Amino acid sequence: MKRIQDARLYGIVDLGYVTAENVVSMTAQLCAGGVDVLQLRAKKLGAPEIERLARQMLPVTREHGVPLVINDHLEIAAVVGSEGVHVGQDDDAVARARAVVGPECFVGKSTHSLAQAVAAQAEGADYIGFGPLYATGTKPDYVPIGLQDITEVHRLVQLPIFCIGGVNAGRLDEVISAGARRVVVVSAFLQAADVADEVRRLKERLPVG
Ligand code: 3NM
């Protein structure tokens, strides 16, 4: 199983873009292309449906050695035994997640500013998301934070930092030049004509180490 500490490319199966029927196929394509970690995100589905999808994804992600992260639903992460769980900006979200998922499951937290990133590290998160860098239809209510704090967040936070929000092949060079080392890509992968190829080609351009 790949470790979150070594992950550079983070994919998300977001049910805003993928139908439930296509979740397994999309999971297989993203894993075949080479995502290092994969999240299940389904803001509009109920817990039973999300649990069912997670159970369908797990054999595929495990076959590829890709850790599966459940967004928001701590109990589902615990009951299906996913490798990770991801939480939002609530106070104590990391501590509450740990109490539910136990020591084997890593915990990531979304952050939208330098202050939130530093706080997430103090809270004991295993990794952070940092964004949205650009305006994005995947998370439309959030104000983009731009690229200017990426270097500073890497100085302040010694956790894996996944830059997120509007990242695609056309913007990758400027995101890397701004200091990003790891990225999350959602809609640009899920809407690609050839998903595995899009993942493979973007991954080749990420810095190693
Ligand atoms: N979280 P896309 S931005 C799920 O900043 C999510 O916390 C964000 O999707 C954050 O690659 C985002 O399609 C959406 O822009 C990322």
UniProtKB/TrEMBL annotation:
Its cofactor is Mg(2+). It catalyses: 2-[(2R,5Z)-2-carboxy-4-methylthiazol-5(2H)-ylidene]ethyl phosphate + 4-amino-2-methyl-5-(diphosphooxymethyl)pyrimidine + 2 H(+) = thiamine phosphate + CO2 + diphosphate; 2-(2-carboxy-4-methylthiazol-5-yl)ethyl phosphate + 4-amino-2-methyl-5-(diphosphooxymethyl)pyrimidine + 2 H(+) = thiamine phosphate + CO2 + diphosphate; 4-methyl-5-(2-phosphooxyethyl)-thiazole + 4-amino-2-methyl-5-(diphosphooxymethyl)pyrimidine + H(+) = thiamine phosphate + diphosphate. 2-[(2R,5Z)-2-carboxy-4-methylthiazol-5(2H)-ylidene]ethyl phosphate binds at T136, G137, T138, G166, V186, S187. Pathway: Cofactor biosynthesis; thiamine diphosphate biosynthesis; thiamine phosphate from 4-amino-2-methyl-5-diphosphomethylpyrimidine and 4-methyl-5-(2-phosphoethyl)-thiazole: step 1/1. It is an enzyme of class 2 (transferase). Residues 9-188 form the Thiamine phosphate synthase/TenI domain. CDD domains: TMP_TenI. Binds 1 Mg(2+) ion per subunit. InterPro entries: Aldolase_TIM, ThiamineP_synth_sf, ThiamineP_synth_TenI, TMP_synthase. 4-amino-2-methyl-5-(diphosphooxymethyl)pyrimidine binds at Q39, L40, R41, A42, K43, N71, S110, K139. Keywords: Magnesium, Metal-binding, Thiamine biosynthesis, Transferase. GO terms for cellular component: cytoplasm. Its EC number is 2.5.1.3. Mg(2+) binds at D72, D91. GO terms for molecular function: magnesium ion binding; thiamine-phosphate diphosphorylase activity. One of its GO terms (biological process) is thiamine diphosphate biosynthetic process. Belongs to the thiamine-phosphate synthase family. Condenses 4-methyl-5-(beta-hydroxyethyl)thiazole monophosphate (THZ-P) and 2-methyl-4-amino-5-hydroxymethyl pyrimidine pyrophosphate (HMP-PP) to form thiamine monophosphate (TMP). PANTHER family: THIAMINE-PHOSPHATE PYROPHOSPHORYLASE (PTHR20857), THIAMINE-PHOSPHATE SYNTHASE (PTHR20857:SF15). This is Thiamine-phosphate synthase.
